[in-house]
TrEMBL record:
It catalyses: 2-formamido-N(1)-(5-O-phospho-beta-D-ribosyl)acetamidine + ATP = 5-amino-1-(5-phospho-beta-D-ribosyl)imidazole + ADP + phosphate + H(+). GO terms for cellular component: cytosol. It holds the Pfam family AIRS_C. NCBIfam families: purM. Residues 118-226 form the PurM-like N-terminal domain. This is phosphoribosylformylglycinamidine cyclo-ligase. It is an enzyme of class 6 (ligase). Its EC number is 6.3.3.1. One of its GO terms (molecular function) is ATP binding. PANTHER family: TRIFUNCTIONAL PURINE BIOSYNTHETIC PROTEIN ADENOSINE-3, TRIFUNCTIONAL PURINE BIOSYNTHETIC PROTEIN ADENOSINE-3-RELATED. It comes from Marchantia polymorpha. Gene3D superfamilies: PurM-like C-terminal domain, PurM-like, N-terminal domain. Keywords: ATP-binding, Ligase, Nucleotide-binding.
Length: 403
């Protein structure tokens, strides 16, 4: 996503989208999973931050996160760990492209594009769902992927403090399946409701022979607005400011090229029970829709003290958090102060993925971070069940991980 922007950040909320979680009912003749079970699982993941969880849980989390797993599909040791680049996605190449575009068009590179409009900025964002679509095709479930589509754009533009106003979609397929498309649009409508923005319309493109039979691609476009004097751009962040994390519902909509490579290596299926959450299938955990943080984040912003927001998408903690910091400042993240959802533990173990790669590819259970003044940090954590004190701002660059 290449967006003209002031270095901004992210926000959070855990809306009713969790109620829609994931439904895997009679998928292509395979076993049926409970929607209620999926809802409970997604709710648990999206409320997994705890500002003062017991020390035994934290110790166990630190222990599990410090491991570098080396397992092959049969569980043996010695197989080389998978990386996002192995799966075909080169984060460094993407960053280099952004750098080159920014050289041609200064201001490009943040989470949302800013356009001056009177005493306000219009803030625009665009994104897709990525190869998470492949799982929707495999499971033949299409009524939640539209929530993901809306989430990826609106969660970007709220990092500037902007309230989303409207959304448009682009739906492209080889041959239009009206029932399938209706399910996709149903999810988009739900996402817009959760974002309190209007669905103005979109484009449906039927392109014979361009996509595989039964498959489609999606893009979304959101526009919001923020008063110029209320813009959140990270410029006032300083050493000692606190970093608040808002829980995700799982993998959200990034890293699925690596997810699918891990699935292939592990020999597991989307219908197998997820280790550590046996009442949930791997497919349910992976297809859980992205949390839309709009209402929650805007509410937190309205109370003051928020200096920067970062949406944790492709690039994970490592690449996204620094995007909101002034030069010379970095983040120290306290590993173990939040519950990492079981799906990430399984992906790390089954794929032999190194810890550093996990934190640069996935959100690890935190979908948004807010950089706030120390005076408001405790109140935010106490009044938001999905929030935790994740770390603090330090001198330096990038992100360091520790206790």
């Amino acid at each position: 996503m290449l967006l003209a922007v002031a270095e901004a950040g992210v926000a959070v909320g855990v809306p009713a989208q969790i109620e829609r979680a994931v439904r895997i009912e009679g998928c292509r003749g395979r076993r049926r999973a409970s929607l209620g079970r999926a809802v409970r699982f997604a709710r648990a993941q999206a409320s997994s931050c705890s500002g003062d969880g017991d020390e035994a849980r934290r110790a166990e989390m630190r222990k599990s996160l410090s491991r570098s797993w080396r397992t092959n599909a049969q569980g043996g040791a010695g197989a080389p760990g998978l990386t996002y680049k192995d799966a075909g996605v080169d984060i460094d190449a993407g960053a280099e492209l952004v750098r080159r575009i920014a050289a041609m068009t200064p201001g490009i590179g943040g989470f949302g594009g800013l356009f001056p409009f009177g005493d306000s900025y219009l803030v625009a964002g665009t994104d897709g769902v990525g190869t998470k679509l492949k799982l929707a095709f495999d499971l033949d479930i299409h009524d939640t992927i539209g929530i993901d589509l809306v989430a990826m754009s609106v969660n970007d533009i709220i990092t500037s403090g902007a309230k989303p106003m409207f959304f448009l979609d682009y739906f492209a397929t080889s041959r239009l399946d009206v029932d399938q498309a209706e399910q996709v649009i149903k999810g988009i409508v739900e996402g817009c409701k959760q974002s309190d923005c209007a669905l103005l319309g979109g484009e449906t493109a039927e392109m014979p022979d361009f996509y595989a039979e039964g498959e489609y691609d999606l893009s979304g476009f959101a526009v919001g607005s923020v008063k110029k004097d209320a813009l959140i751009d990270g410029k006032n962040i300083k050493v000692g400011d606190q970093i608040i994390g808002l829980a995700s519902s799982g993998v959200h909509s990034n890293g699925f090229s690596l997810v699918r490579r891990v699935l292939a290596r592990s020999g597991a299926t989307l219908f197998d029970a997820l280790p550590g959450a046996e009442a949930t299938t791997i497919g349910e955990a992976l297809l859980a829709p992205t949390v839309i943080y709009v209402k929650q984040v805007l509410d937190i912003i309205s109370k003051g003290g928020v200096k920067g927001i970062a949406h944790i998408t492709g690039g994970g903690f490592t690449d996204n958090i620094p995007r909101v910091f002034p030069s010379g400042l970095g983040a120290h993240v306290k590993v173990g102060v939040w519950d990492v959802p079981p799906i990430f533990k399984w992906l790390q173990k089954a794929g032999g993925v190194e810890e550093a790669e996990m934190f640069r590819t996935f959100n690890m259970g935190i979908g948004m971070i807010l950089v706030v003044s120390p005076q408001v940090a405790e109140e935010i954590v106490l009044t938001n069940s999905n929030a935790c004190l994740l770390g603090h701002v330090v001198e330096g660059d990038g992100v360091t991980y520790g206790k």
